[in-house]
Design brief:
Layout (H helix, E strand, L loop, with lengths): L1 E5 H12 L13 E6 L3 E7 L3 E8 L8 E4 L1 E6 H9 L5 E7 L2 E6 L2 E6 L16 E6 H11 L14 E8 L1 E7 L3 E8 L7 E8 H11 L4 E6 L3 E5 L3 E6 L18 E6 H15 L7 E6 L2 E8 L3 E7 L3 E4 L2 E5 L1 H10 L4 E6 L6 E5 L7 E5 L6
Helix pairs in contact: 1-2, 3-4, 5-6
């Protein structure tokens, strides 16, 4: 195999597929990047068994300046190879392969590294019983960014490490929960004629990597199979396994009424919680306290070792019964960042029941964050 290519275009492709590569894997060859060259294009693949990313550089891509001299393939150590390419001196490079040894030449530099036979690299997942739809990349980014914060990072309950997507016609409902908080986003897909019924759980880690690839994209073609999802971004295909099992019924966790409601600028509450958490983070339980008394909103953070901070907040409105509630400030800060630049309604039912944060005036729960308070007595 032999080809030459613009180095920056090659680095971008390497960066994209490297998102799927982990140094911690039970399959040693998956620490490598698969490089395959045919008569028309260069194909790079990275995988960690959970996600696989394949990106293609076409010979007709003038920016890539791909010149194909001899077809073939090899797999090369991902981190080592990428670092070599990023540090080469010239604007282009030539990669030549003989057997399982690769020579990388750029300017006056010439590296030779050992790889492995491309035939030993696992094949991309097969897609059976596929349902297909096309979605706006912006809407998909919106769904991911507003829900991934509440996905669990604990492998003891694998099902909760995913984002649950329920598709009904052109409506998508995305939910995550780690048992302490819950995020929900409901959108109606635009620019698509597909009306599909599907219920899938995609690992939040997969979506996190996909989100980075979506930037600058217009639309994404999605294929859903029995145990795999594939996202087609034009020259890049992103595969993710689906989590098996039934996601918990979350609708029953969302309160249908409230006894106290606070309407406030998200940035105002976010700033105050950030200051209060300076103290709470020095405490063993990391809790801040919100008090609503006769229309006055007060936030307090305490650390027995360091001291305390108390701040009175300027709210747009406070309605309902007086309340004193404690919560993990990090959970609420994550939720409020989603509503940056907006006013929010914070609705409470009691000091021991979960409370919700939604855009001010909205009652349809299409953008909802739910937080479980902390018992302090």
């Amino acid at each position: 195999m032999q080809f030459s290519i613009n180095r920056q275009a090659f680095i971008k492709a390497l960066n994209d597929v490297s998102r799927a590569i982990s140094s911690r894997t039970t399959i040693p060859i998956l620490t490598n990047i698969k490089i395959l060259l045919n008569d028309e294009e260069l194909v790079l693949t990275g995988s960690n068994a959970d996600i696989s990313i394949e990106t293609r550089i076409d010979q007709s891509d003038t920016a890539a300046q791909l010149v194909i001299k001899k077809t073939g393939g090899i797999t090369l150590p991902a981190t080592f190879f990428s670092n070599i390419v990023k540090n080469l001196p010239a604007d282009d490079l030539t990669l030549a392969v003989e057997g399982v040894r690769a020579s990388i030449t750029s300017g006056a530099s010439d590296f030779t590294i050992n790889g492995q036979d491309v035939r030993n690299y696992p094949q991309l997942p097969e897609m059976d019983d596929v349902q297909s739809l096309s979605v706006s990349a912006a809407q998909l980014i919106d769904i991911i960014s507003q829900t991934k914060i509440s996905a669990s990072t604990q492998e003891s309950r694998p099902i909760l490490t995913g984002i649950h997507l329920a598709l009904d016609g052109t409506d998508v409902k995305a939910v995550t929960t780690d048992s302490h908080r819950l995020s929900q986003r409901i959108v109606t897909l635009t620019g698509t004629d597909a009306h599909i019924q599907a219920d899938v759980i995609i690992p939040a880690k997969s979506f996190n990597e996909l989100q980075s690839l979506l930037e600058g994209q217009d639309r994404v073609d999605i294929k859903l199979a029995t145990n795999q999802a594939m996202f087609d971004l034009g020259h890049t295909s992103f595969y993710s396994r689906l989590l098996e099992g039934n996601y918990p019924e979350t609708d029953r966790l969302i309160p249908t009424e409230s006894t106290t409601q606070l309407t406030i600028e998200a940035s105002t509450l976010l700033g105050a919680i950030g200051r209060a958490s300076l103290l709470s983070h020095e405490s063993r339980n990391n809790v801040v306290q919100l008090t609503l008394t006769s229309g006055v909103v007060t936030l307090k953070g305490t650390s027995q070792e360091v001291g305390e901070v108390q701040e009175e907040l300027v709210a747009q409105s406070v309605d309902g019964a007086d309340l004193e509630i404690s919560f993990n400030p990090d959970y609420v800060r994550d939720a409020l960042r989603i509503f940056s630049g907006k006013s929010v309604d914070v609705k409470f039912t009691s000091n021991l029941r979960p409370f919700t944060i939604t855009p001010a005036g909205e009652t349809d729960n299409k953008q909802l964050q739910l937080i479980t308070p902390v018992r302090t007595f």
